Amino acid sequence: MTLLDIEDINGYYGESHIIQDVSMNVDDGEITALLGRNGAGKTSTLRCISGATPPDVRSGTIRFDGTDITNDPPEDIAVRGISLVPEERRVFTDLTVAENLHLADTVRNKTNTWRRKLDFRDEGMSTEEIYEYFPRLDERRSQKAGTLSGGEQQMLAIARALHQSTDLLMLDEPYEGLAPQIIQSVENAIERISEDGTTILLVEQNAVAAMKIADRCYVLDRGQVVFKGPAEELQNDQETRDKYLGV
Fold this sequence. Notes:
Layout: E1 2-13, E2 16-27, E3 31-35, H1 42-50, E4 56-64, E5 67-68, H2 74-79, E6 82-85, H3 97-117, H4 127-133, H5 135-139, H6 150-162, E7 168-172, H7 180-195, E8 199-203, H8 207-213, E9 216-221, E10 224-230, H9 231-235, H10 238-245
Parallel strand pairs: 3-8, 3-9, 6-7, 7-8
Antiparallel strand pairs: 1-2, 1-4, 4-5, 9-10
């Protein structure tokens, strides 16, 4: 079943046409990778989905679970169950791991109040469930987030998103700046999150790592979709990888 359906969206930064007739689907329960070089429009596409501006979506349709959410406010989109983990991570560096998660828990309680009014189910992982996904965070409950490694901060950013009622988890460059062994830890967590039922849209410049765990891939170039298909097909398409990904 299609959870996210994007049809011919066009996004603009002022008069700059950044996203051009992008169409893509994310099926319930799968990991979809959105790939491309720097400046291809990957992050801008996530911003269009999450309701962040800019860019401005001037045409096209974004449907989530059958409902048109095109240009809805970000808070309404979040209540519907879309969580975005931005590239910058944006953890509260002066707060401990436990305090960061406590704040997320407070937001979840408020969000679930609105979800009940809309007859959406209340979910979101408990703190203890999150520590099962990320044992390193459990070990560092009392440590300030600003003193964590890049990989640990990425885990914390994902953990905060999972505290919410999340049906679609969007990850923007989760592997950026991480050592190979830390990438493996984050990768394992993403796969487990997917296996437990959360749909994932993964934006990543590390195409090799992304293709390894993705079910389907889309490749963007200058704001346009130039490839769509199973991850295995892209892995075997060396011409497309050379031309648009450089791998």
